[in-house]
Structures are given as structure tokens and as C-alpha cells.
Specification:
The complex is a heterodimer of chains A (about 475) and B (about 400). By secondary structure, chain A is of the alpha+beta class. Chain A contains 19 helices and 18 strands. In chain A, helix 11 crosses helix 13. The relative contact order of chain A is 0.12. The model of chain A has no long low-confidence stretch (mean pLDDT about 95). Chain B is an alpha+beta fold and about 400 residues long. Chain B has 3 domains: about 220 residues, 2-Layer Sandwich (Uridine Diphospho-n-acetylenolpyruvylglucosamine Reductase, domain 3), CATH 3.30.465.10; about 100 residues, Alpha-Beta Plaits; about 70 residues, Alpha-Beta Plaits (2-Layer Sandwich). Chain B is about 30% helix and about 25% strand. Chain B has a 5-stranded antiparallel sheet with strand order 4-5-9-7-8. Chain B has a 4-stranded antiparallel sheet with strand order 12-13-11-14. In chain B, a hairpin with a 5-residue loop joins strand 7 and strand 8. The mean pLDDT of chain B is about 95. The chains are: A alpha+beta (about 475), B alpha+beta (about 400).
């Protein structure tokens, strides 16, 4: 397997390891600092487990002031810093290296204020995504972005990767639901951007920070929007004879002026895997499945579903299954939400995250199959059809180095296909280290150098989350 | 404005060449589209005017993809006509601000991005910056840069798209934009609650947007403003519902049931509702003059307190959009924007910011038009600006107050 390279650990920093650990110990309480080799191991990687590097130290601060003190220290001493939420990145966005200090926000997990009248929640950045919705659910509200990892992932990580989820078609991604942050810059300066107002003053630095993969600073608090829950939500299943027809049906639903809250797509391999795992009652005699979810009162949902079913019938839909109860709805979603886990039970896989314009879905699905066939591998497609965010899961055997290399090569080809179809490399997982070297397929060197200059405005010493997002040689050229 | 001429490039390459030439000569450029918002910001001088008006045309639009890409100088009217033909719209409901400035030019799509102009539906559908998916622009080194794309989910590299939105031409010349678009609602109606006091109105709007009725516009027009908007005597609190007709009917029922205090209410039919929200969108109550006009952005529940606090000290008039979080405030004294009073009220009511959207040139020269930021944020913003325009070619000083010194 072609190993993804990291920047060489700075030998002077590694040599000063004990001194740096002692320096950090003066800044935070003892139980907030991890330096034991054994205890550092859990921080050596994230959900992109093929790469592992044990960091110099891990700090788990309890306050913004402690984060600022550690950042100031690392800045003064030239120590790289790796921001970390829950470590659920699928792209290696939180993988450390031997000369780096990991700053994890997991201990900063308090909800600071719920303001229903202004529909905002102010939280510490280590709070998990789902906790916000849990906290306000009884009062009829929710926090909209819902990545599959929402039980574990933190708001800090969501901001870092501009996380999405299944319901973005209607409610947007993190950047559309984030109103303000308190963050610590690389030199230890604490700043606040935004607040409870709906638009930003001056340049939209908040928008810039969202999705910056931990390279502009460490977010310690966030103000997010709360949304009133719909009266009800109901998914309906459609089974089609081919992926092309399913894709055409999606285009027609949207063309008719209907924006369902979610449109999820699964192909035959994905249906088989999910049904075997979740027993969701998915039809087994179809080639493609759509889960279309609508919201509203019963009457409203009936009315919209009638329109959607009529459109599906025009496309000769083979199976239609409306959920009749909350339990049936939950089962339908259980199949979809367990797709990654269920796939992991039958094979190792790598999950791609390219996004394409909706008109390109059929083309990209066809070409994806052709690419994977060419490498003699299998692929299961399960993705957010409403927003064009593809998630082909390339199945392979992790213990077979040749197959692993093929899977990686097929993945890279698929991402290039997405870019060539007018899309992008990553919709919601982030670039991390995984897709770093493909950036020059989507952008010119001039484009990337402009981004690097903006990054340097925040981090002139290039110490924040190095080796991520940008091709290594570009980062090194800028840094020197 | 001491322009020695206007240059209208026909391509990105030409635009880049013009910028490189300006950098080489040490001259500056004012950036404009149709020129209808040139009076916004600190007064500044530039050597030439670089216009996007020659970069026109819709480059890509397939309605089923919900994305429209156009050259920056394309008239907004042309975009809206193309969308209308396909039953779609710019969901952020951009206002036409020509009336505010007595401008006769043609507003362009690039300017909506550069100024991040969003109307009443911003409350539920996001701002221009949320709908803006991709940009091409020429930076201050004369390089053509692409960022973002034509897809709704995209975390590929730094999001310079957001940065360009609302940068008022100080970071680069936007040459092409891609906006997310949405289906136009089948119909709409507006519930008008008459006679609510400011506090009461704030509570009504908060209750309304807290229901599942999906209110897509929540504004409060005090007496006077309401009258000029055709809503009769007394104050009017207006709540808009949009969607398929059966859904709108059902949600209207739910909304009324959730607002028991709103006994004195009436409803506007589709045509009247549309006409009303165009007025609110375009800030029609304050068009046709040159009095100082503030756009104040605060937490929704703070809007009425901010307005009341200011209007106790200076004469003027206000109305509230975005559930109260957007206050349009017009002051009577043409010679004084009362910036200290306005911004002190914002600070006292929980923070936010105030922009002096309109005032005579000498008043703007004596006033920080954009809210001044905390020192570390201002320093960071300046570093970011310099990362895009190191030589300071574009709109020099438009967004940063120089302390009232005469522009060079």
C-alpha cells in the first residue's frame, strides 16, 4: 500500500519531549494531561485507522483559558498542535504525529445556555452532536445537522469538518446552523466571532473557520441554531428496477417543486447488506431503493406523499412501502443508518464522500461500477441522493495488501470521477490526510496557494494540524 | 470619486491583466457591478473603476440540480426571470435596494454575493452566503481563483466562498457565482396581527417561529410604517406561510391556535401577501430620501429594546424583520448618524452590530460605517484581507474607518 506521508517530526521538538511535557504540566491540572505511552495510544489515530502516530502528549483542557495557555506555550516553543473532538474522522483529520501535542475538547462538554425565544443553544465545543437535540427535544426543538456518528461526534469536530447528515437537503449543513464561536488562535489569543444575531459583522470569518479542519484555531464554545420540530415525519420506501430510474425519479420529485427532508439511495449490494443486518423490511427483488422522508401534520404528509407516489409510479416503481407507524419509520431508518456498520460485518471497506451535481448521479453510479469492476472489487452504494453526496463503500480484505492497494486506487479514481462530473472530493467527511494528494485534481496550484495564504493569516508558523488538507509539498514550500 | 476611467473586462483573463497592471503601477481599483450600491461604505478614492458589467450570462442551469451558475455581471432580473420560468427562486429573497439610494443602474448577481444581501426569508432559508455554493474571482495579485463549486455539500479546502460573501469588493473581483436555488412556493398567505405593542410583538413572533408552522417571514411594522405599507392604522405584526395550498391552510390553523393572544388578526391573500413582503424586502418604508439608515443585527428578542433605546434619544423610525433580529432604523437628522448612541444601544442589549447603510458622504466620512471589531478580530480580518489583496488594490478603505481623516 502506498503510505500517505506525514511531515517529518521536528527532531528538536522530539528531543525536548520531557521538557515540553513538564511545561504543559504547569498549565493544566494533572488529570488533564496524558503523557504515559500506554495512555497515549488511544489518541494515535481516529476512524481512519490505517494510519497511526503516537503524539508527544495529549492535553484535555477544562476551560478556554487552559486551551489558550497550552496554545500559547506550543506557539512559543514551535510545537505542532492537533485539535481533536471525539476522533471519529473518517479522513484522518485528527491523526497526530510524534512531535505534536493533541488538544482534545472532550472535557468541555457542558451546555451553557438554551434560549428558546431566540432559538439558540450555547454549548462548549466538546458536547456531542446528539446531546443538543436531546436537551431541547421535549420542548419541541432540535439541532439539524445529523451525521451518522452523532452519538459520539462533538460540535468542535462538526465545525472542523462542516458536518452534514441525511437531512441537509432541507436544513443545511453545520455552517448554515452555526451562529457564533469562541475560539483560541494559534498564538493563544481568544476571539469571539458572531453571536445570536443572524448575520456576521465584517468579513465572514465564522464561515471561513467552519470546515477548516482544525487549521485556523481551536473552537471552545459555539452558538448554534435550534429549529422547531415538525409535527411529524414519515419515510416511504420505493424500489426500482435500476439505479438510473431511481435517479430520474429523484430529479422529477425536485423538478415538481417538492423538497423532501431527506432522499436516501441504496443500490442492490447495500440493500442486501443492510437488510441482513437490520431486518428493515427492504424489498429484495429490486436493484435500487429510495427512502424519501416528508414532514408535517398527517394531512400534509398524506398530501405530499400522494404527489411523490404519483411521480414514482410514472417511473414504474416496483415496490412502494409507506410506514404506518413511528416504529416502522424507525426500522426503515435503522437499515439506512446502520449501513456502514453492517457493511463492516461482511467486509472491510473504504467509504468515499464525493459530491456531484444531481444531474450527474446516474452517470457517476455507472462509472463507479465500471471502475470497481476493473479492479475486481465490489462496491455498495448508499448515499444522500437529495444533495448529491455519494458514499460508495469499496469492499476489500484489509489483510490482503494487494487488494488494499486496489481499493485505494479505485477510491481515488472514483473521487476524480466526481470532480470531473462537476462535483468535489468530499461533501462532509473532510480532506484530512486521506484526500490531501487529490486536491490538485480539483484545484490549481494557484487556488491552493491562495487558501494557504489565508490559512497563514491565522497560523503563520504552520503549527496547527500539519500534514492535513493540502498536498505536502505545497504546505512545505509555503512554510519555508 | 476620482476615477480616470472605467474598465469593463470581457473575460477573467482580461480582468486579471487589469489587476496586475494596477499592482505594477501602484494604482487602485474601485470594484462595481451595476453601480447601484456604490454609496455604501466609507467614502474612498480609487484610480479606476473596474466593472463586472461585461461578464454576463447564465453559464449553467439545470432546474433539477437546484443550482444556477452565472457570470457576476448578469442582471439579477435576468436570473430571476430564468428561475421564474422554471418555478424556482433565490430562496434568500434578495432585496432591490435601488429605491434606498435613488439608483438607476442594473443590480447584478455578483453584487448580491459581494454584499450578502438577504431578505425576509433569511429567517428560515438562510442568507445569500448560505446559498452561495461557489465563486470564481480575481485576487489582488491578478490571479484567477476558483473556490467552492456547484454542490450543496462541500468541505474540500478552505471555504473562501463565505469570505467573499459580504466582503464588498475589498478582497477581489468576483467573476462568476453559483447559487443554490429552490422551488418557488405554490402559494402563500400572511397572518396580520393588529395593534401589538413592541414587546408583545416580539413575544408573538418568537411563539410563531417556535411552532411547527414553518413561518417564512416574521416582521413587525409599528404604526406609521404599517400605514405606509397598506396595513391600516396601528401597528402590524406579520407572519408569512408558504408552500402547497393544503399545507398552508393546515399550518395557518396551527399557527392561529398557537397564538391565543392574537385575537385581532386578519389574513392577506396571495397577491397582497406577495406585495407586502416585497416592500419589507426592499425596505420600501424608508426609500426616497437621504436620511441616515441603519441596518442593525441583534438577537431576535433584543430588536425592539435596541430600537426603543435609540429612539428615546434621537428622532426617527424603525421596523423589524427576521423575527426582530433585523432592525431597519431611519433617523430624522440628515447631518448626524448618531453612531455612538446606536452602537451603545446594541452593546447594552446583548451585542450584535450596526451598519450605516445610507447617509450623506460627509456623514459617512465622519462615522464608522461598519461596526468596529474587537482589536484581535480586526487584526485578524486585516491579515485575511492582505492574504487576498496584499497591495491594497481593491476598494481601499471601504470597510475600515480611518478615524475621520480625509480619504487620500
Amino acid at each position: 500500500m502506498n503510505q500517505i506521508r506525514f511531515l517529518d517530526p521536528r527532531p528538536d521538538i522530539v528531543a525536548r519531549r520531557d521538557e515540553i511535557r513538564a511545561g504543559l504540566a504547569e498549565l493544566v491540572p494533572a488529570d488533564c494531561l496524558v503523557t504515559e505511552e500506554r495512555e497515549l495510544v488511544p489518541f494515535e489515530t481516529d476512524a481512519f485507522t490505517a494510519y497511526r502516530r503516537v503524539p508527544l502528549a495529549v492535553v484535555l483542557p477544562e476551560t478556554t483559558e487552559q486551551v489558550a495557555a497550552v496554545m500559547k506555550y506550543c506557539s512559543a516553543n514551535g510545537v505542532p498542535v492537533i485539535p481533536r473532538g471525539a476522533g471519529t474522522s473518517l479522513a484522518g483529520g485528527a491523526i497526530p504525529q510524534e512531535d505534536a501535542v493533541v488538544i482534545g475538547v472532550s472535557k468541555m462538554s457542558r451546555i451553557l445556555e438554551i434560549d428558546f425565544e431566540n432559538r439558540t443553544a450555547k454549548v462548549q465545543a466538546g458536547v456531542t452532536n446528539l446531546r443538543i437535540s436531546d436537551e431541547v427535544s421535549a420542548d419541541g426543538f432540535f439541532y439539524a445537522p445529523d451525521p451518522s456518528s452523532q452519538l459520539a461526534c462533538t460540535i468542535a469536530g462538526n465545525i472542523g469538518m462542516n458536518s452534514g447528515g441525511a437531512h441537509c437537503l432541507k436544513y443545511g449543513v453545520t455552517t448554515n446552523n452555526l451562529l457564533g464561536v469562541k475560539m483560541v488562535l494559534q498564538d493563544g489569543t481568544v476571539i469571539e466571532l458572531g453571536g445570536k444575531a443572524l448575520d456576521a459583522e465584517g468579513y465572514d470569518l465564522l464561515g471561513l473557520v467552519c470546515g477548516s479542519e482544525g487549521q485556523l484555531g481551536i473552537v471552545t464554545e459555539a452558538v448554534v441554531r435550534l429549529i422547531a420540530k415538525p409535527e411529524g415525519a414519515r419515510p416511504v420506501l420505493f424500489g426500482f428496477d435500476s439505479s438510473e430510474v431511481a435517479g430520474a425519479c429523484v430529479a422529477d420529485i425536485i423538478g415538481e417543486g417538492i423538497i423532501p427532508v431527506a432522499i436516501e439511495f441504496m443500490d442492490k449490494p447495500a440493500i442486501d447488506i443492510c437488510e441482513a443486518f437490520a431486518h428493515a423490511g427492504y424489498p429484495m427483488d429490486v436493484e435500487a431503493l429510495l427512502i424519501v422522508e416528508v414532514e408535517g401534520s398527517d394531512d400534509e404528509m398524506d398530501a405530499v406523499l400522494r404527489k411523490i407516489i404519483a411521480i414514482a409510479k410514472k417511473h414504474n416503481v416496483k415496490r412502494v412501502k409507506e410506514s404506518q407507524s413511528a416504529m416502522e419509520a424507525a426500522t426503515i431508518w435503522k437499515g439506512r443508518k446502520s449501513a456502514f456498520g453492517a457493511t463492516g460485518r461482511v467486509a472491510d471497506y473504504i467509504c468515499m464522500d464525493g459530491t456531484v451535481p444531481l444531474g450527474q448521479l446516474s452517470h457517476v453510479l455507472r462509472e463507479t461500477s465500471a471502475i470497481v469492476d476493473k479492479y475486481g472489487l465490489r462496491v455498495a452504494n448508499v448515499f444522500h441522493a437529495g444533495d448529491g453526496n455519494m458514499h460508495p463503500l469499496i469492499l476489500y480484505d484489509v489483510n490482503d495488501p494487494e487488494e488494499a492497494e486496489k481499493a485505494e486506487a479505485a477510491g481515488a479514481e472514483i473521487l476524480k470521477l466526481c470532480v470531473d462530473a462537476g462535483g468535489c472530493l468530499t461533501g462532509e467527511h473532510g480532506v484530512g490526510i486521506e484526500k490531501r494528494d487529490l486536491m490538485l485534481h480539483q484545484f490549481t496550484e494557484t487556488d491552493l496557494n491562495q487558501q494557504l495564504r489565508v490559512r497563514a493569516a491565522f497560523d503563520p508558523s504552520w503549527l496547527l494540524n500539519p500534514s492535513k488538507v493540502f498536498p505536502l509539498d505545497l504546505e512545505m514550500r509555503k512554510a519555508n | 470619486m476620482a476615477n480616470d476611467g472605467t474598465v469593463i473586462p470581457a473575460s477573467d483573463d482580461e480582468a486579471a491583466e487589469i489587476v496586475r497592471e494596477a499592482v505594477a503601477k501602484g494604482t487602485t481599483l474601485e470594484i462595481a457591478g451595476g453601480g447601484t450600491k456604490r454609496g455604501i461604505g466609507q467614502p474612498f478614492a480609487a484610480d479606476r473603476l473596474l466593472s463586472a458589467a461585461g461578464l454576463t450570462g447564465i453559464t449553467q442551469y439545470n432546474p433539477a440540480e437546484l443550482v444556477l451558475t452565472a457570470r457576476a455581471g448578469t442582471p439579477v432580473a435576468e436570473i430571476e426571470a430564468a428561475l421564474d420560468e422554471n418555478g424556482q427562486m433565490l430562496a434568500f429573497e434578495p432585496g432591490d435596494w435601488r429605491g434606498l439610494f435613488g439608483a438607476n443602474g442594473v443590480p447584478t448577481i455578483g453584487a448580491l454575493a459581494a454584499a450578502n444581501i438577504s431578505g425576509p426569508r433569511r429567517l428560515i432559508a438562510g442568507a445569500a452566503r448560505d446559498a452561495l455554493l461557489g465563486v470564481r474571482f480575481v485576487n489582488g495579485s491578478g490571479e484567477a481563483i476558483k473556490n467552492g463549486g456547484r454542490v450543496m455539500k462541500n468541505v474540500t479546502g478552505l471555504d473562501l466562498v463565505k469570505l467573499m460573501a459580504g466582503s464588498w469588493g475589498t478582497l477581489g473581483l468576483i467573476t462568476e457565482v453559483s447559487f443554490k436555488v429552490l422551488p418557488r412556493a405554490e402559494t402563500e398567505t400572511t397572518l396580520v396581527i393588529h395593534g401589538a405593542h413592541e414587546n408583545e410583538a416580539a413575544n408573538l413572533m418568537a411563539a410563531a417561529v417556535g411552532t411547527s408552522a414553518e413561518v417564512s417571514g416574521a416582521a413587525h411594522l409599528p404604526e406609521g410604517v404599517a400605514g405606509r405599507s397598506g396595513l391600516g392604522d396601528g401597528a402590524a405584526t406579520v407572519l408569512r406561510l408558504e408552500g402547497f395550498s393544503e399545507s398552508v391552510t393546515a399550518r395557518l390553523g396551527r399557527l392561529k391556535a398557537a397564538l391565543p393572544g392574537a385575537a385581532n388578526a386578519s389574513e392577506l391573500d396571495e397577491a397582497a401577501s406577495k406585495a407586502l413582503w416585497v416592500k419589507i424586502r426592499d425596505v420600501a418604508p424608508f426609500t426616497g430620501g437621504t436620511k441616515p439608515l441603519w441596518k442593525i443585527s441583534v438577537a431576535p428578542m433584543a430588536g425592539h429594546d435596541v430600537a426603543a433605546m435609540i429612539l428615546r434619544e434621537v428622532r426617527g423610525e424603525a421596523f423589524h424583520d427576521w423575527q426582530g433580529g433585523l432592525v431597519w432604523l431611519q433617523l430624522d437628522d440628515e447631518g448626524d448618524a448618531s453612531a455612538a448612541i446606536v452602537r451603545s444601544a446594541v452593546a447594552k442589549c446583548g451585542g450584535g452590530h450596526a451598519t450605516l447603510v445610507r447617509a450623506a458622504e460627509d456623514v459617512r466620512a465622519a462615522t464608522p460605517v461598519f461596526q468596529e471589531q474587537a482589536a484581535p478580530v480586526a487584526a485578524l480580518a486585516e491579515r485575511v484581507r492582505a492574504a487576498l489583496d496584499p497591495a491594497g488594490v481593491f476598494n481601499p478603505g471601504r470597510m475600515v474607518w480611518n478615524g475621520g481623516r480625509k480619504a487620500a
